[in-house]
Amino acid sequence: MLHTDNPKVATLIKGCLVNDRNSQKELYYLLRGFAMKICYRYTNAQEESEEIVNEGFVKLFKNIHQFDQQRQDDMLLSLKGWFKRILVNTCIDHYRKHHASVSGHLLTYESETIPDKSETGIDVLSYKEIIEAVRSLSPAYRTVFNLFVIEGMSHEEISRQLGISVGASKSNLSKARDNLRKLLLNKNHYNIYVSPQ
C-alpha cells in the first residue's frame, strides 16, 4: 500500500524534473525542517546550517533525475533517505573546505583508555541538551563524532572522506566522547557514560 504523501511527492518530483519553480519551492518547504535537523548537528552556527541546507537543496534539484522513485513504497521516506546522503556529503564537503587546516590529534594510549562511567543520567538529558553539547565540540571532533555515531560510518570510511588517518579518526572520536562527557557532566552534574567504540 502506498503512503498517503506519495501522490503529492510524486507530483512534486515530476515538477522538479522539469525545473518547475513552484514544485521546487513546495519540496523545499516539505523537506527544510528535516534537512536543518541533519545539518544542525555538524555546525555551531544557525547561518552555517542554513548555508549547508541551501547547498544541499541545490544538489537535490540538480540531481533529482538520479532519485529512484520505485525504490520503496513510501516515496517520501525514500526521498528523505536519498536526500540525507546528499546532506551528509555536503556537510563533509563544507568541513573539508572550511576546516581543512584542522589536523587530527595523534592517537595516544591515554585518548584510547578513557575510563567508563556508569550508565545513569544520560536518559534524563533532553535531545536539545545533547545536540547543543555536540555542536560545542571543535569542528574536527564534531564531524568525526557525527559520522561515526550518527551516520554509522567506519573509521576507514571517515578517514577516506575527511582525508585523515584512521588513527586520527579514532583519536578524534575518543577525544569527542571525552569532551562530551565533561560538557554534559559539568552542565547537568550527572554521571554520564558515552559508550566506547
TrEMBL record:
Domain spans labelled RNA polymerase sigma factor 70 region 4 type: 128-179
A single GO molecular function term of this UniProt record: DNA binding
Transcription regulation keyword on record: yes
Keywords per UniProt: DNA-binding, Sigma factor, Transcription, Transcription regulation
Keyword Ligase included in the entry's annotation: no
Source organism per UniProt: Pseudobacter ginsenosidimutans
Family the entry assigns: Belongs to the sigma-70 factor family. ECF subfamily.
Pfam families the UniProt entry points to: Sigma70_r2, Sigma70_r4_2
PANTHER family assigned to the protein according to its UniProt record, in alphabetical order: RNA POLYMERASE ECF-TYPE SIGMA FACTO (PTHR43133), RNA POLYMERASE SIGMA FACTOR HI_1459-RELATED (PTHR43133:SF8)
UniProt-listed GO biological process terms: DNA-templated transcription initiation
Domain RNA polymerase sigma-70 region: 32-98
Protein name per Swiss-Prot or TrEMBL: RNA polymerase sigma-70 factor (ECF subfamily)
